[in-house]
Amino acid sequence: MRGVVLLSCPLRLTRRSGTSHPRLTERAIVKRSLVVPCLLALLAGCSSDADSPNEGKVKPSSSASVGGYGDILVDGKPVTGSKSSGIKKIPYQRTYTDGEVYAPVTGFRSLAWGTSGLEAIYESSLTYRKGDNVETTIDPKVQKAAFEALGERRGAAVALDAGTGALLAVVSTPSYDPAAFSGNSSKDLEAWKKATGDKNKPMFNRALHEATAPGETFDIVIAAAALDHGLYDTVDEPTDGGSGGCANATIREALARSCNEIFAKLATDLGEERLRETAKGFGFGDDELNVPIRVAESKYGSYRNGAITVTPLQLARVTAALANRGLMVGPHLVTEGEEGQVAQSVPAATAGLLLPAVQEKKEWAPTDADNGTPSSWSLAYAQTQKGDTVALVVRVATSNAGAAARVNAAMAEALS
Fold first, then answer.
1. pLDDT tens digits for 148-160?
2. In b/e form, how buried is each residue of 283-296, taking b as 16+ CB within 10 angstroms?
3. Same domain membership, residue 217 and residue 286
4. Measuring CA to CA, which residue among 138, 132, 119 is closest to residue 74?
5. N or C, fewer C-beta in 10 Å, the chain?
């Protein structure tokens, strides 16, 4: 059994009034629609674009103290705001700053289609009747650097502080602007249909919810299991597999050269049970992970049958654990939240042996995809200005092996 320690961190909320906030409970990723388009407006007369004198004229509020909903904060500054809705019973409509950049974090708040993301989870606190703010752990420079580097390609990027578990970037592209359908006008309906009908799925949070084949990135887990279970004492011992330039390569060399035969043999020597044990220690099979947004399960079914999937966030957890003496700190997206776990994924000695080999690998071979589009992965480490280690993981839907690495380079530069 691996040790588990609970960290207690109460959520930091700022209020306009002095009353205390109620206990917050987790909600579904996307709440059910509140009403159909314009139904809310029927309470005060259905309004169209022409009937909304405030449409497009009111700028986002600089803070919740201006009035309206509480705000979601990034680096202490609001990336959300409020404006008049023109509806007496629901007086405010949500606005967003850099909506596409932060949509995977904020989610959306719409008069017609409900809420998602942090907007849904903290809806009762963000409501204009309470006006609490929710502060995130996101670093705006890192978030924007990854978003700009990914461009319109289908991809995701995660920056995870290895020591604290703070998520400094959660990026998914292509994205959407939640401000486009925060109201209930015909224009909002048109924007909603466009976003939900787009074949590239801009509203799908690829960083947290898209679990795909890990390809050779899973070699890290195999290598950790081989060291943990005593198949090899160091990453520099010759193995007894492979051919050509990979013949009898060490684990360090096998990682650097993408020696698939070596890792296939290691997996066979380990057997499914021991490999599954190490994968589980790294968080595979956790179907209750929340940050507090619910994260899709990364599964270890069978190495032999290729039944393994991983999200970018899960791979960031594995990468971060190696840099943190094998400790996995529960990832979190708000500055203070509900209890999070700290688990020993692999022994500190195993992490210490494997970390240098992973740091030395600069390029990961693209993986195949069921739809014919391969994925380019990149795993890297960077340091904050304070000297904290950050795990960087990027996945891009392309056969260009260097595409994801360039996004990681952009995030690393933003951190320095």
1. 999 999 999 999 9
2. bbebeebbbbbbbb
3. yes
4. 138
5. N
